[in-house]
Amino acid sequence: MGTQVSPRYVALNELGYRIGASHHNCTIPDDVVSHIRDLHEYEGVGYRRLAKIFSISRGAVQKICKYRLRAQAVHQWRRVP
Question: Which end of the chain is more exposed for a tag (fewer CB within 10 A), N or C?
């Protein structure tokens, strides 16, 4: 008997492409992205300080906060083995 692998789900946009943390090139988890946005919007933490806290570039933090990066909505979830 082989081992049973539990299925996982990936997020897809309206075109069927993987988005967010389920994308194969993703390096920043979804919870970190939402935490960055919350700290910037509600606490007023600046881009440079957020970049140091999370060890990512200031430009990436700026794009995340301005919804130019990681801004797609999940259209559907697909189960993959």
Answer: N
> What's the mean pLDDT in 23-44?
95
| Stretch 29-47: mean pLDDT | 96
> Can you give the pLDDT at residue 54?
97
Query: For residues 23 and 16, what is the distance between their CA atoms, to the nearest angstrom?
Result: 12
pTM of the model: 0.84
Interacting residues of 68 by C-beta distance below 8 A, sequence separation 6+: none
